[in-house]
Amino acid sequence: MPLPKHGDPSPSRSASGRLRDLHLTRKPLHIPYSEFEPYKADMRKRVELTRSGGLDGLLSIHIMSGQGLKSSKTSLRDLYCVVAVDSLNKARTMIRTGAINFDWDEAFDIDLEDSKEVSFLIYHWDPNYKHRLCFHGSILLPSYVQSGHKRYVAIKLEPKGILFVALLYKEPAISLQRLPSIKKNALFGAELETIILRESSGLNVPLLVHKCVLEVERRGLETVGIYRLCGSARRKTMLREAFETNAQAVDLSPENVSDIHVITGVLKDYLRELPEPLFTNALYQMLLDALSVRLPCDPEGSAKLMLSILECLPSANQDTMALLLNHLRRVAAHSDKNKMPIDNLAICFGPVLLCPAPSSTPDPLLDFRKHIEVLRYLLEIWDYEGSNSKYTM
């Protein structure tokens, strides 16, 4: 089985001290075994998947417990689980200590882009040696999950053991619904300009966007898989609630939010849940058209056409957009360390920045790949150190 690419999946030694959980003192996790269905990936179907399309959207994964993970060498071990999609690391659990059964009880929200297989890789953590892959299993997504239908799966691991997980897949029409929030003074799901007026921060961008971008640039530019890896859904919910309560008071320092991937996840959630995409419904088709009429013989003219469309955005959208494009270019400038060049960042942000609400266009899902192409092109032509420097922080 191929190991995940792009970076060491293990927690760092410094992080391990904070993340390690004294598993033996915890109550056993209650698992409704009768609701789980056994699963083992069919290798013949994996071959078939290489010739078919994958899934787009959002996959929520709740890793509950690994059982029967016995070792003949030691009685107690430290294990953690890495989640990979099509061999790319997407998330990792905390370290748990145990002998046979390990209760992780952690959830993650993972973006899918033409994704075919999700793998679960269980490693033995050791402070002195390279972390060793002990158990693994996978699920072939297109033939197994259905949008909106939660599945409880008992995955048969190799060489032994069972991993209990719950999966909930949401296709783009659901994960990018862009429904306005009905909560009073909401932050997530509220209009961009409404938030900026309410916060009165002196910035023409939401405090959440400004603070998250600033913190990533302070300590996350060289983090492998920044914006691709996911933080804990539970910790993400806590940070969302803190921003909803008082965005001005939120402290994103490592002492308060140790996992930078929680911060990046909240930023992507905010952009995904805007009632209207940052690039607006009105300019959506214009951007797609400008992309389609690019002339190889006139790259400068093609770039000017695309950038001139951005000048039609409302002021708040322009400034927020410019802040994000500058930021993503800075992230890409460190791709030798973080493994996140422009192509990867466009995959992470294209749909959340461009995909309109389903009701605003006949079939926006047909343009899903184009969202990525548009953002990739914008990042390629964006002069973040030059003419657009007025948008820097």
UniProtKB/TrEMBL annotation:
Question: GO molecular function terms here?
Answer: GTPase activator activity
Matching PROSITE patterns:
C2, RHOGAP
Which Pfam family is one of those matched by this entry? C2_SYDE
GO-annotated biological processes: cell migration; cell projection organization; regulation of Ras protein signal transduction; signal transduction
Q: Which InterPro entries match?
A: C2_dom, C2_domain_sf, Rho-GAP_regulator, Rho_GTPase_activation_prot, RhoGAP_dom, SYDE1/2_C2
According to the entry, every stretch annotated as the C2 domain falls at 39-154
**CDD domains assigned:** C2
| Key word Cell inner membrane present | no
The record's Gene Ontology cellular component field reads: synaptic membrane
* Rho-GAP domain ranges (all copies): 190-386
The UniProt keyword set, sorted, is:
GTPase activation
The record's section on PANTHER family has: RHO GTPASE-ACTIVATING PROTEIN 100F
Question: What is this protein's name?
Answer: Uncharacterized protein
